[in-house]
Structure formats: structure tokens, C-alpha cells
Amino acid sequence: MKLYETLAADIASQIAQGVIREGEKIPSVRQTSQHHNLSVSTVIRAFLLLESQGVIESRPQSGYFVRRKPAVQACAGDAAAAPPCAVDLARGATLDASQFVLTTLRSINQGSVPLGSPYPDPASFPWTRLNQYANSMARRAGQLGMTADLPPGNPELIRQIARRHLENGLAVDAGEIIVTTGATEALNLCLQAVAPPGSAIAVETPTYYALLQAIERMRMRVVEIDTDPVHGINLEALERAIVEQGVAACMVMPNFQNPLGFQMSDERKRAMVDLLARHAVPVIENDVYHELYYGDVHPTALKNYDTRGLVLHCNSFSKTLSPANRIGWALPGRYRAQVEKLKFLNTLNTPALPQLAIAEYLKNDGYDYHLRKLRKAYAQNASIMAAAVRRFFPGGTQVTTPMGGYLLWVSLPRGVQALELYARAQERGISVGAGNIFATDDAYQHCIRLNYSYPWSAEVEAAVRTLGLLAGELLANCAPRQKAHL
Amino acid sequence: MKLYETLAADIASQIAQGVIREGEKIPSVRQTSQHHNLSVSTVIRAFLLLESQGVIESRPQSGYFVRRKPAVQACAGDAAAAPPCAVDLARGATLDASQFVLTTLRSINQGSVPLGSPYPDPASFPWTRLNQYANSMARRAGQLGMTADLPPGNPELIRQIARRHLENGLAVDAGEIIVTTGATEALNLCLQAVAPPGSAIAVETPTYYALLQAIERMRMRVVEIDTDPVHGINLEALERAIVEQGVAACMVMPNFQNPLGFQMSDERKRAMVDLLARHAVPVIENDVYHELYYGDVHPTALKNYDTRGLVLHCNSFSKTLSPANRIGWALPGRYRAQVEKLKFLNTLNTPALPQLAIAEYLKNDGYDYHLRKLRKAYAQNASIMAAAVRRFFPGGTQVTTPMGGYLLWVSLPRGVQALELYARAQERGISVGAGNIFATDDAYQHCIRLNYSYPWSAEVEAAVRTLGLLAGELLANCAPRQKAHL
Predict the structure, then answer these.
(1) What whole-number distance in Å separates Cα of residue A218 and Cα of residue A248?
(2) Range B127-363 has CATH code 3.40.640.10
(3) CB A280 to CB B98 under 8 A?
(4) CATH code linked to domain B370-485
(5) At the top level of CATH, which class does the domain B3-88 belong to?
(6) Whether the Cβ atoms of residue B77 and residue B54 lie closer than 8 Å to each other
(7) ipTM of this complex prediction, to 2 decimal places
(8) Chain B contacts in chain A segment 169-228 (CB below 8 A)
């Protein structure tokens, strides 16, 4: 049993004995760390484990509390004879990544400076117009019933998506499009369509955590491929993995990758599609930031170079027209029939009103104007945020140069634990994305991801400065210990 | 190769050779049947196979057409070296059930008399008020962003669901509720939470086809348990299956089961929960018709008798407030943490606006009045429809006596093929649910399911009469052949 597991068991036992009761606050990370003489990192891992077991719950800026329980008991906390849970999505032995991501997301809307958010600033969405369209469609759609929105989705929305792709230089057959509940559903369905459980799936590293979780959920195996923060995935390494490890499919993000922000060149995109075609390996392309480019022209997708139907393109309106609508889509190539069936089985159809509202928005003018504003603002913020990090963070810190999107990847000097920085920042009302969730191992435990979609302000600048100071403190604390171990 | 597979290959080859070209209509079921001297049933199976391969597509009341294809090719139709599709949801060797269900559903909204629909009459929903609430919430919710609706879901909607359960006699902890994209998502997530691939899952027979498809999709094994059309699942048979076949979980519908319409007694519900608890087997309860009872009181759920957190209750507003909203929920008992994680991985969150609109609708008065109207209408229609079937269908036909919901199960004399009846009825603009999709084998190939949620009218009555006449013809045709085989 690891240290953090022992600590978690101790705390659970205290709760079971009534030492700490339902609804009561448990001692803070810092108190527990001092009391047990354990590192903050160990305590945080113990707390996250207890949270994923349903024993405690976090309340942002308040700490952790013993969860109130009904007659029902959490799976992991129940010692009596009971069937095991089929799903345990804990990554490795150190962090329940999906629980941690959910905890991070929940902390965002509670008054903290949301540097850890994966979502764009909600104020950036054209709410007024979208709501006008939702209103007018709600009146008209009353008697539509259900069947008009059956998979593949609302026909008018599908037409608008095809038109938009064409304007962006990708001629797609509207008959290939399948509307989904956000890109998340599209990615899950495409993955299940292309590979059976047990398959090896290649991803960039670092990569968007939801891909890692989707692969684990499908009981497949993650193969992380070396990825350059400027040029993208290493194609030689990818080919080796295909040949040597029998990779069955890839999941990548060639444009404005989350978290690195690079844009693969057209040559490298074409080379990647050719390479995969030679080996008959399908690739799931996540292109949700495609409209948020900083260059002069819309980027191509892997799909542009696909002649064999092996590229499954996943996309959504979540980054430009609000994630709350949950409208995404897939262009699944030769896997279309399978993905459509899986969509039908997974959620039947996609809610009607958001589909209709977005279709109506796209039909009318304004999307391009809206996007031009976003691109300009995000490109500016990217430079300002990177400059602030360089100014406030300890020497040796590296930042990416995103070519689109709104996410900055910050690599701190090794020894700084992002989880500790996360916890200390939380105490000060600042959220950050800890690098730990972007890989299956500890490769990025010294990295953080920052969101720069919010207007630059004194408050945001102060938050970045605070983060830099905290990082400096952590570095100072850990440096001697690190050296002692040498 | 079976007859229908040979026929499908012949037709595919004609299309490949350009004998029939893209967008062109292929010869009708009847023409093909006569030309090849094959039964209508064989031809239909060949067409359904080709449809699931993406080679042809059906256009209701027009027939089958060669599908237009982009550069992209359908998986099954591609002979070149290409990775296999991971998912092939064809049931047995005779029918791609999920494709057939989708085809049936698509045919509903196209002017046919929708006796095959699983959905309630769209005119039965309180559209005007729901839309008013959607409108007012759309204006207010503008700046909400995304995080308020993260799993477990919108807090106000969760409060309203908990309140409604309490009014219906089930005290639930609001903290247990997880909002989902319809009950479909809830059922899928609960199934994945309780059992790993390869597990044996017990279901009633006949059962709601989506359960069979969910089990297949998760690579689990269906174990069909004898089910009485009045009393429900046979508990002795269920216990035997648990002991002898190692059943890992159950998926059942104790109230107004789809398709049989029975309501299990309180005693049998309690006995079932006790039985499962003794064997520590979790049960996923699908209770989507719970508000549509014909008796004096709201029925109990298995969840009412659960003391060990082994009942995963799935529900939705799709039957009472429109499926187009896609708002369902789960009460996953001890599996709550797992189901919440899976929800997060599957679709992130549930769309905000439908959640807000339904929460607002529930907060204000009118739901009970709306439900009283529905219950009265459905109870009346149940009697009228059953009487019409008895009057118009051939002797030996049996009908159920539903105790809630809006679905009637009709068992025709053996020898009548429901798929043939389906095809002939389609030609006359009438949709029916073919019994074949409610089991993994041919046990119900002589049964059909009829929807009686639509107001009784001369048109509906004429449709039932036509069905009865067609059934009589099929019986007359098949009877001699059946005898010849004896």
C-alpha cells in the first residue's frame, strides 16, 4: 500500500467511526500534511482517492467535506459482499484522472480565476442571437416530434455543416455527417467503431485527457507517441509503433492541439494520412479548434487529404457557439454506418432545439464576423499571457507559442509538482490545469495548462503573478530535497 | 451462404457493375420476390442487409434506392485491404436489428399511420408551455456558461426530479441523481458500470430492443428469462439463470413493460429485489412509463424496495414531455460514482436549455393535470385498440392488457411472419413494430407491437383493419406450406 492509500484508509476509518461526521469539514490539505508529516502531494492524492470513492466531496474555496449518504453506499467504500464495479477509471496508481478533471471543472464557476478551464470565456459566445433563434425555432418546432432529428441528425443543420466545411475548403458529402452530443460523443463513437477492446491506440503526448479516458473506458491500450510542440506528432515514431506495437488506430489533433497549441503543416498532414493509409490504420481527428486559427487562412484537416475513408473527423460548435448546446458532429468516412448505429444506441438522437437554433444561426449572417473577433482577441491574449508567464515564473520555465485556440502550455522546472501548485492556487481562488492529466504517467507532472480566452485584466495578471510566485516557492522548497536524493 | 445473403451479393454486384446506378430505385420487394422466386421475407432480409452495408437506402413509401457515395466507402462493401470495422451489431444471422429499428423509426414521420412508433403522439406534449419556459430560460441563462450543468446535471432540475420522486412515494437523495441524455444514455452507462465485457445479462423476453442492443454493444451476453404477460419476469427462472449461468446483472422494466405492458405486483417487486440482493446481483430498472399508469395510484419501483444500493433506476421525461428534449436521469445506487464518471466521459454534460426548460415546467403547476389527461386517453385507447384487433385480426390472435403506457403486443397465429406483414403494411402507408426485434432469436417473429397513443380515428381504425386483413392473407398463404413441411 502506498503512502497516500494508507492515509486515505485512515481518514475513511475515522469517518466510519464517526470521528468526523457526515457534512463536516475534514482537516485541510496543509493541516493533514503537517499532522501526518506527509507531502502536500501525497495528501492531495489521498483526498482525490476518497473523493472518487464518494467518501468526501470538495467545495471550492472551502475544502473537503464528508459526503452525506443515503441508504445507498459508494462502491469502493463498501466492505460487505457486493458485486465489484465494472469500471474503475483510475489512471495508474496515482490519480483518478477523470475524477480530478471533473473536480477541476467544477471549481471554475465558483468565483475563481478560471485559468484551468478548458472552455472559452462564456462571455465570448453570441448568446443573444442564439437565444433569439432558439426562441423562434421553439415556437415553430412544436409539432416536429422526434423523427426529424433521428440519426444522422437534423437535415437543416447537416446542410449548414456541409456548407461551412465547403467554405473552409473541405468538400464533404452531407450524407456522411452524423450529428452528436458534442465532439465528446463523436470521439467515443468513432473509437468504438474502429477498434475492439484490447487494441493499441496511438495518441500524441501530451494529449487531451478525454482521449486517454475514452481509450481506457473502451478497455483499449494507450500508446503515447513523441510529439513536438511546434511540428506535432513524430511520424517516424508513429510508424514504428504501428509496426512494432500493432497500433490499430490513432487519435490526434493536428490543428491547435490541446494542450500544445501547434498546427501541423500541410506537408506533414498529408504525410501522416499517406503513412496511415499504407498501413491501413484509421485515424480519428479531433478538430474542434479549427475556426480559431491565428493565421491568414483556415487550416486544412487530415480529412482534406483522405482518399480512402480512413479519417474519422470529429468536430463541434462548443468552442465558438457555446459548449452548453452540446452540438458536435462526425465525418466517419468508411465507418459511417457503424458510427450512425452507435450514435443511435448511445443517446438515440441529439436534442432538437439546440440543433435547430444553431442551424438557424449558421443560415443567417454573423458567424464569420463573430469568429474574426474571437481570433483577434485570442491571438493577442496568447502573446500577453506568454509574456506574463515569462516575466513572473521562475527561470527555466518554458511556454508554447499557440497557433490557434486559447490554451497555453507551461513547462516548469522539473521538481515543481503541478498538483501542489494546483492545490495552493485553489486556496487563492485560482484554477490551473495540472499537467498530470495529459499523460498516462508522470511525464508532465511539472507542467500546467492556462486558458487565455478571458479578457486580459488586472485580476488575470495578478493571478498569473501569484502562480509564478507559488511556483518559485515550490521550486525553492523542492530543490534541496531533490539534491539530497542525488 | 444463406439465401438472403446470396441475393444481397447479387444485387450488390449489379450495382457495382452499374446495372443499377447511384440514386436509382431498385426493383421492389414484390418484384424481386417474383423474379428470383424467393419469399418476401428473404428479399426483405437481403434489402436490410444491403441497407446496413450502406449500399442502398430506403425511402418510405417509395422503396429502396442505390445510395449515393462520396470518395468514402462503406465498411462492409469494401473489398480492398482495409481494417475491419470493430462494430457489427447484426443480430444473429438474420436481421441487423439496430438498422431495422432505425429504418422503422424513420418511416414514422412520413405520412404513415404510425402504429409502429415507440414514441407517444407528438401532439400529446405540452409544447406551448415548454417552449415558453425554454424562451424565458434562454434569455436568463445566457451567461451561465457550462459548469452549472456539469455532471451530475443542473441543480434545479435535480431538485425537481427528487421532489417528483418524493410525491410519487420514493424518497431519494438528490445527491444520487445523475441527469443523462435521455434514458437511453442512462441505461448504457449503468450497464457499463455494473458489468465487464463477456458478462451474462438477464432480460425479460420479449424485451425492449434497445436493451438487447446495449448488451451486444458492450460485448456482453443476453440471457432471456421467461416472462409472463400479466405477472412479469419468472423469478424462479431468473434465480436458476443466476446460479447456473452466472448472470452478472439484470435489465428489466417492472412497470408497463415494453412491449408487454404488464405491471409487476408490489409483492413480486419486493421478492425480486430480495432475490437479487441474496445473490448480490445488481438490477438496472427502466421505469420510463411510470407516470402513465391506468390504476389509481402511482406504481412502486424496484428502487422502493432497495436497501443495498443494488437497484440502478433509469428514467426520463421522453414519454411525457417529449423525447426531443433528451432529458433522462439515473439513480445508480452504489454505482453512483462510476455512472457519473461514465456520463462525463460519454457526453460531458447534458444540454443546458432543455434541462432548464423542464426544471421550470416542473416548478410550476400543470404537470399533474397534463398527466391525468394522458393517462385517461391512453387507458381508453388501450381498450379500443385491443377490441379492434380482436375484431379485425384472424382467429387465434392474442392481445395483451396493458396496465400503463401506450403499447399493445399482438401475437398472431404462428406462421404469420411479422417482417412480411411489416413490408406489406409499409406499402400501404402503415408502420408496425415487427416482433423480431424484441428477442435475440425468432421467438416473436409472429408478433407485432402497436402504438395507441394517437387519438382514435377512422384512419387509425382503417389501418388496424388493413393490418388484420393482411395478417389473414399471410396466414392463408403460409398455412399450406407450413403443413407441407410437417
Answers:
(1) 13
(2) yes
(3) no
(4) 3.90.1150.10
(5) mainly alpha
(6) yes
(7) 0.85
(8) 172-173, 175-176, 181-182, 184-185, 188, 192-197, 199, 210, 213-214, 217, 219
